[in-house]
Amino acid sequence: MVSGELRALVLAGGKSQRMGKDKGDLIYYKEPQKIHVAKQIQNLGLETFISLREGQKQEKGYAYILDSHKEMGPLTGLLTAFEMHRGAWLCVGCDYPFLQDLHLQKLLKKRDKSMFATVFKDKNTGFLIPTLAIYEASFFEVLIENIAKDQFSLLQMLKTNPCTIIPVSGKAFTSVDTKQDYERIIRKLHFPKGNR
Q1: 50 and 64 in contact (C-beta within 8 Å)?
Q2: What pLDDT digit, counting tens, does each position of 52-90 carry?
Q3: Looking at residue 43, what DSSP letter applies?
Q4: What sign has the CA pseudo-torsion 100, 135, 126, 186?
Q5: Is pLDDT above 60 for 182?
Q6: Taking the model in full, what pTM does it have?
Q7: How far apart are CA 34 and CA 81, in angstroms?
Q8: What is the β-pairing status of strands 117-122 and 48-52?
């Protein structure tokens, strides 16, 4: 068991029911989004893994962590990752196509290791964003305690435990969850003048 070192996890194991297809395999920038995000994080110098369910497509040349528990939302991938490496994890969802290196750098810069987690909060909605967060090693015990009570919401765990909260705003922090969202983003990316 390795501890103390920050690793990164690209969360791509969701069922993407509203999208109708695997969000990690959607292409915004000439390659599957889960690979694009993994490369973004690797550029920051972090050992990076991609979290998947059994049976999801794996691209060569990347490290994967396959969910070893029943489906419990984003918590499933994080729990499996903690069981592999009991250190801290930077978790990044694969459904934020406008997220840039500077946003991840801000999360790393604001990290407070004395807290259970460091997480972005959307100024517009007031919601914490559990899939854009750093979870310290101490958060593993929070997971275990809540799972024992059949409580699987990362959002609720963040709300009820000491965390560093970073208020943010902008399209970078808006997730793409439906086919209509995806098509709209693709039009903006590839035909920007026509969408002004």
Answers
A1: yes
A2: 988 778 889 999 998 876 676 788 899 999 999 999 999
A3: T
A4: positive
A5: yes
A6: 0.90
A7: 16
A8: unpaired
